[in-house]
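Extended Data, panel c. Modelled sequence:
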Amino acid sequence: MQKKRVVVGLSGGVDSSVAAYVLKEQGYEVIGLFMKNWHDTTGVLKSDCPWLDDKFDAQAVAQKLNIPFHVVDLSDEYRKRVVDYMFSEYEKGRTPNPDVLCNREIKFDVFMDKALELGADYVATGHYCRKDTVIKDGNPVYRLLAGSDKNKDQSYFLCQLSQKQLEKALFPIGDIEKPQVRKVAGTLKLITAHKKDSQGICFVGKVDLPVFLQQQLEPKKGKVFLIPDDSSLFGRDWSKVRIENPSDEDLEELSKPYPFHPKYGKKIGEHNGAHFYTIGQRKGLNIGGFPEPLFVTGINVDFNQVYVGMGKKHRGLFRDVLFINKDEVHWIRKDLEMKEGESRRYQVRIRYRQPLQEATLHFRKKGMFIVFDEPQRGIASGQFAAWYEGDELVGSGVIS
C-alpha cells in the first residue's frame, strides 16, 4: 500500500521539526517545505536576516530526519495578502491580527497549493491544536479543537480556516505538551531543540511597530488627552442586554466604542500618529509624572487624537458588548451556523491566550452581537473574536 504523502511547513522552529518527525514515525512519506515570506528588516528588532537563519535550521532538520527539502518564495503573496492588509487596517485606526490572516491566506491557501503541486495528500504544521472528523448527513465534517497543552493552545490563530482547508490539514503535535516536544527534539539532537520560540508578527518577527508601519504610514503630530474615570462618561445601562431577547437598538448602542472627545479631558502630551496606537496599549506613550500608568482608551484617526486613562482598571478600557458585521462572521462548521434572530451561549476569546470568557451570542440582521457575562478589557476593532463550545472552535469574526 502506497504511503500517504505529507508536506510539512518546516519553519526552522522546534514545533514544526518535531511535527515532521512524528509524521515520519506514523508512516507517512514526509517532505519538508520552507516558506520565504518576508525579507525586509525595516523595524525588525535584533535581527539581520532572520529568514536565512530559519532556512538553515529547517534544512538541517530535514537532513537529520532524512526527508526531502524544498524552498518556496511566497513573499509577493504575503505582502499583498497580509502586510498590505495590516497597513490598511492601522491606517483606519483598527488593530489587525496578521497571524490569523497568515494562516488563512498563506499557510493554508497559497502554501497548501504549492504542497499539492508536490503531490501532497495532506499539509502539516507545528500548531498546538487538534482536528477530528464527525459524520453529518453522511458527509464528513472537520472539527478544529484546542491543543492538549492549554498553555500553548494555538487554535485561535486558525479561527478563520474553512472545511476545505481543514480537510487537508494535519496537526501532528496537537496532543503533545511543549516540554515533551522539546524533549523529543533534544533526544533526536535536532538543531532546533533549544531554539527560542518566534515572537511578533508571523514570518516578520518582533518589530518596533511605529517604525515598521512608517514604511507606508506617515508620522503625524497630534494631541494626547487624559480622560477621567468618570461614571457619567461610562454609565450605559448594561442591564438592557441581560434580558433574554434584547432589542437590536439596545445591542447596537451598547456595542459602540465610547465617544471620547477632547472636551472630556485635558491635553497632557503629543504623539506621532494615532494610527500607531491600539486600545489597552501602555508602552510607547512616553508620558510620565502620573500616580498610575497610562493606557490608551481610544483613538480617533480622523482628527489624529489619542485618549488615555490612568490605571489598568479605568472604566474606559472595558466594554461588555462587541459587534461583528454580517459579512465578517465565519463559521468553521456550516452545520452549526446561527439563524437570524437566534441567540446561543458560547465561550469567547478576543486575543491569543486570553482565558475563555462566558458570553451570549445574538445573531441579528446586521450581524453578530457578543454580550459578555463580565466586562472585557481592551476590545479593539480589527481583532478577531473566536467562539468555542468546549474544546471546539466553532466560529470567529472581525470586531467592528
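The first helix runs from residue 14 to 25. This feature is highlighted in the accompanying rendering.
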